[in-house]
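Figure S4 source data
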Amino acid sequence: MNRLLLVHTGGTICMGQTAQGLAPQDGIVEAAVAARLATGVSLIVERFAPLVDSADIGPRAWNRMLDLIEAHPGTSVLMTHGTDTMAYSGAALSQALAGTGRSVVLCGSMVPLGMGGDAESNLELALSHALAGAAGVRLSFNGAVLPADGLVKVHSQNANAFRAIPQAPATSPLHRRFDPSRRLAILQLTPGLPVPALAAALEALDGAVLRIYGAGTVADDEALFATLAAAIRAGKRLRAVSQCESGGLKPGTYAAGQKFWNCGVENGGQETPEAALVHLWLN
């Protein structure tokens, strides 16, 4: 008998109308999955209690997801999840499960089940791919199944909300769980950014992803370089990615970036900001 593990975290797909607006509701996703499940497939349901909006998903929730997946070895996984942090969770699960051969299909929607939107078709596509059991972590959305390691949410309202940016092949991480006590963040370098503001942010962090220009340039600012070098000497890990959605970084292309790279910042290459942040957590 085939088995399917449903890890139900919440998100728009299971929401109903309340006096305060849309909020996750019990039983909606479970019933929809059960009604679409083929005969002979055994459904195992693991749900977050309470169900959450994806804005509340972070390292503790990723550890919980991983614990639930690990508790059911050899079982394909369908995971429902809100869209706002889907790219973070896609990167988190992809990197944490790299090399394990596990099959996870993420599913969410822009409109809740039963409201005439995209939820039903997303769920049906996710079910078919989850039962196929191919190794890896993927997202079922808007008629496509995308690799989840480099997701980008490109629209806040339309059904065609996600794009997948190709990432380097994943390798087994140093750690397979997230340490919630680590203080990590994504910081964007912008024209006119006061260096003391960046220094203050870095002082409060253990590491950061720095979003820089194009193929790898930043402003020629000695105070900026001194701040970055000092942070790295203090043991803070800094990893750079491009502010461009595609193309990634190529250090050495422009002289304008050489002093930045001389500070010792790690090159995130083609990583999305979400993937780079997860890399800092797990490696």
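Figure S5 source data
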Amino acid sequence: MTGTTLAVTTPWHPTVQRPFAGSFVQVSTAAVTGLFDRVDLYDTEDWTGPADPVAARAVRKAYAALTTGPAKRVEHRSRLSDAGYWVTDIPVPVTPRRDYADWAHSHESALRAVLPDGFSADVVHGHVGIYGGWLALRFARPDARIVVTEHASFLGKILRQPRSRALYAQVIERADAFLAVSRVLRDQLAAEFPAHTAKLHVVPNAVDIAAMPVRPEPVKALHRWLYVGNMAATKGVPELVEAFAIAAEDEPELRLTLLGSGVLIEPMRARVKELGLADRVAFHDAVPPQRVFEFMHAHDLLVHASKSETFGMTTVEAVGTGMPVLVTACGGPQETLAGLDGVAGLLIDVSDDPRVIVDGYRRLAGQADRLDPHRARAELLARYGSAAVAGRLAEIYGVAAPAAAGAGATEYGPAREHE
């Protein structure tokens, strides 16, 4: 649409320091870049500083001196991404204390140093209500269309803090459309803000499935397990390690790779050593998103035992490459794999008992020859492919949809009321 511009605000976007962060925002933004004359993305990234209030104030004062005023020594320059949109990376000093309202105001202050006059864009898309949505509210023109996408699995924590809930209420009030990446998340928002159910829609993350390299040969045996993501208890990593230890007792050919970073790296290394599995469990630091497919092609089974997911991007990516998956029914995966249980892999119950993972693995191993990775990939392409989601977003933005979006874009209309 000639003359139309888009600004995207997000606390998550891939950087050198965090190559995994916000790859879903990257893909979704790339999918809609062709709809606008110009797209600018502002990545306000948490940089955790000291907890001590005096030291924290000193950090903020020093940051302000570096980034504002006539004598500022740090310039935030935009760079052109490979996808054709402009990116400005903005570090935001925050304290370790999880006060989401304070953090939102910190992100606002950091962005104000870069854009004192706000956005000139016609459409502003904020990712996560706090912070991207708050920044959209504070920086958009009065006549701009504001769209907010909620991804956060920690939404409940935000809404339990009165100050951050008050900010969130302002965001959802101002937004022209408020999107959730799964029905579970949409229903949570509807329960919290019933007056705004009419503007709530389910629009999934865009996944560039068409560009994903498919493994050259189908999986024949599920011997090489892979986990990709944050090394955290909420992701079920301890249960996964214990489950692997149980399964490995009877199957000496089993191997496990844990790909990612996080607080559990060293505890899990110690536990693997204690279990006598150091030669069968490999740890690998996080890698840029494009390199994840190398690991998926070199392994046989993605195992994710998360306690809660709003979408489950890694699961969709694995299926897109032709890799079987064993994942917990923890929210998002039930939607992303709807109709594909036993086709793309298996869904298992969320549990603290590692034997649930082992039982699921053994059931899946017994029916691996009945999986249909080609059908699974085709189904997910129609649901979550970049073209399909771009078509839906174009409708919500109020701009002309790309001709290639086709019928897939119509799958994601406004969410129905509770059935």
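Residues 320 and 378 are 8 Å apart (CA to CA). DSSP finds 15 helices and 14 strands in the chain.
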